[in-house]
């Protein structure tokens, strides 16, 4: 689950193109540093997952470590981060296939029309039930890993464009210096969003205290190494100069397939789309559950609580999720690049992906701080495991967020950190109001926002 939401193919085929305008040929270095940073940031998550296995995941960890108000803010940030994934993928699928169809067939189907197809299929599978969605996602995940790693091995086997070099694994390869590395890091971090998903299965797996932490760490390490190797192979395959010219509309892996293994062209195209769709499916399933549960608990309009009597699925919540994804994708695309140009769809993914990454990073900060405080107050504090690593992970994520505010100079990216700050302030104000007026509802609302685990929340806080 964790590995599938990270989406190895989509993260390898597309996310680097959003880093390369900033970090250029040093993008493999950025991914390597990001892998190390995420492993450190995961330390607090792993410790809390081992100590408090729960479907509430981050909400539970932060609430137990820092209190229900911080837990509510955590839930609000998670909700925003995962709600933006489906519309981001609608834009990316549309942009990628519009560019592909134009080059392969000479046709020019607008990206937004193409994006409606996966959005509709997403809703159809959700109507059929969670089993259909998960089975489809598992098949697509297996396919994408085989294709992306296979093509990377072929590129390396051919010796690349100008011979193999480790220079892309050094910071000096960045054409824009430290500023470029900092901004490129955020898009690299987007590739790791979802690694924590296994933590939400704490109530459903055997031996959760052992299995869940192991799943989180193995997912980060395995998928992270795939990223570093494949993106290093990409830079070597294209060459330094060509890599530095990439942008969000580029399709470098199509070019690599055409150059090094023409028979891989269509497998790459299929794996690219399947990976995007798998991410869309997994994220939309979570949002649907949250909307449905919030409807049942009176936190959102009651129609969202409706369950289809035949399929036993939350049909109105599914429709709301699909409609939100389509409207937001088309709105952002129309404003940022137009509905007829693939740049519009590409910008949807770039903007929303950047924004959701900035939304999830504070969650990692809060969880690591919660881990340090929880174990310090429990009397079982160990300096490295519960102090150095969690506080180090929190510091790295804070440094990244601050760096974005100070170093970012390209609009509209300069605005996005402030949008997250505003959202945090609003969530904190909402938590303060609930704490004073409806304290029991505060804990319930935070649990719902974080994981849709309302049944457990009701028992815990005595609501319902």
TrEMBL record:
Annotated transmembrane regions: 29-49, 70-97, 109-127, 139-160, 180-199, 211-235, 263-281, 316-336, 348-371, 383-403, 415-435
Compartments (UniProt record): Membrane
Main location: membrane
Gene3D superfamilies for the chain: Amino acid/polyamine transporter I
InterPro entries associated with the record: AA-permease/SLC12A_dom, APC_superfamily
Membrane topology: Multi-pass membrane protein
One of the GO biological process terms: transmembrane transport
Occurrences of domain Amino acid permease/ SLC12A (ranges): 24-374
Keyword annotations from UniProtKB, A to Z: Membrane, Transmembrane, Transmembrane helix
Matches recorded under Pfam families: AA_permease
A GO term from the CC aspect: membrane
Name of protein: APC family permease
Species: Solirubrobacter ginsenosidimutans
């Amino acid at each position: 689950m964790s590995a599938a939401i990270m989406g190895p193919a989509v993260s390898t085929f597309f996310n680097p193109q959003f880093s390369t305008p900033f970090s250029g040929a040093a993008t493999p270095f950025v991914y390597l540093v990001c892998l190390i940073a995420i492993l450190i940031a995961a330390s607090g998550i792993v410790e809390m997952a081992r100590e408090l296995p729960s479907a509430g995941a981050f909400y539970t960890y932060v609430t137990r470590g820092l209190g229900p108000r911080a837990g509510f803010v955590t839930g609000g940030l998670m909700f925003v981060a995962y709600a933006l994934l489906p519309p981001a993928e609608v834009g990316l699928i549309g942009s990628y296939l519009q560019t592909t169809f134009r080059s392969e067939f000479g046709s020019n189907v607008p990206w937004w029309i193409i994006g409606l197809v996966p959005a509709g299929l997403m809703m159809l599978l959700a109507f059929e039930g969670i089993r259909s969605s998960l089975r489809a996602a598992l098949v697509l995940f297996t396919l994408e890993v085989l294709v992306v790693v296979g093509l990377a091995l072929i590129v390396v086997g051919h010796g690349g464009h100008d011979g193999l070099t480790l220079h892309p694994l050094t910071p000096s390869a960045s054409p824009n210096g430290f500023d470029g590395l900092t901004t490129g890091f955020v898009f690299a971090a987007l590739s790791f969003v979802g690694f924590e998903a296994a933590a939400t299965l704490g109530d459903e797996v055997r031996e959760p205290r052992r299995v869940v932490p192991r799943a989180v760490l193995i997912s980060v390490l395995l998928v992270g190494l795939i990223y570093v190797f494949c993106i290093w192979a990409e830079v070597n395959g294209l060459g330094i100069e060509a890599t530095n010219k990439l942008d969000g509309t580029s399709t470098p892996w199509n070019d690599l397939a055409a150059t090094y293994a023409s028979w891989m062209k269509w497998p790459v195209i299929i794996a690219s789309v399947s990976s995007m769709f798998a991410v869309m499916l997994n994220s939309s399933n979570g949002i649907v559950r949250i909307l449905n549960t919030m409807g049942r608990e009176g936190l959102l309009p009651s129609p969202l609580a409706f369950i289809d009597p035949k399929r036993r699925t939350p049909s109105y919540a599914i429709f709301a999720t699909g409609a939100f994804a389509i409207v937001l994708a088309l709105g952002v695309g129309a404003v940022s690049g137009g509905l007829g140009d693939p740049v519009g769809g590409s910008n949807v993914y770039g903007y929303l992906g950047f924004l959701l990454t900035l939304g999830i990073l504070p969650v990692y900060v809060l969880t690591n701080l919660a881990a340090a405080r929880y174990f310090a107050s429990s009397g079982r504090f160990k300096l490295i495991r519960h102090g150095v690593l969690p506080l180090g992970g929190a510091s790295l994520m804070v440094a990244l967020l601050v760096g974005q505010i100070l170093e970012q100079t390209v609009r509209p990216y300069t605005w996005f950190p402030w949008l997250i700050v505003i959202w945090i302030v609003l969530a904190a104000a909402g938590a303060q109001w609930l704490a004073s007026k409806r304290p029991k509802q505060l804990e319930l609302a935070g649990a719902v926002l974080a994981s849709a685990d309302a049944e457990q929340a009701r028992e815990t806080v005595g609501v319902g």
